[in-house]
Write a structure and sequence with these properties.
By secondary structure, the protein is an alpha+beta fold. 29% of the residues lie in helices and 24% in strands. The protein is elongated and about 50 Å long. The structure holds zinc ion (ZN). Zinc ion binds next to loops.
């Protein structure tokens, strides 16, 4: 085997823009229904927090795969 070292990062997706976010170093987080969501920016968190229909983001996240 070669010398490739894969850094183990816990990546999760920002439900607003679907960008990958490092769970260990999130820029912003929000808790909804007991689950923590991670965001790439405060702008995305704001959009999530201000959205009354948060399920629409969560659906989009589910459809995009984890
Ligand atoms: Zn984002």
């Amino acid at each position: 085997m070669g010398g490739w070292v894969v850094e183990k990062k816990r990546l999760t997706k920002d439900p607003v823009c679907l960008m990958y976010v490092d769970e260990d170093k999130p820029i912003a987080t929000s808790t909804y229904k007991g689950k923590t969501y991670y965001f790439c920016s405060h702008m995305c968190k704001d959009r999530f927090d201000k959205e009354s229909d948060k399920e629409k983001f969560i659906r989009k996240l589910d459809e995009s795969g984890k």
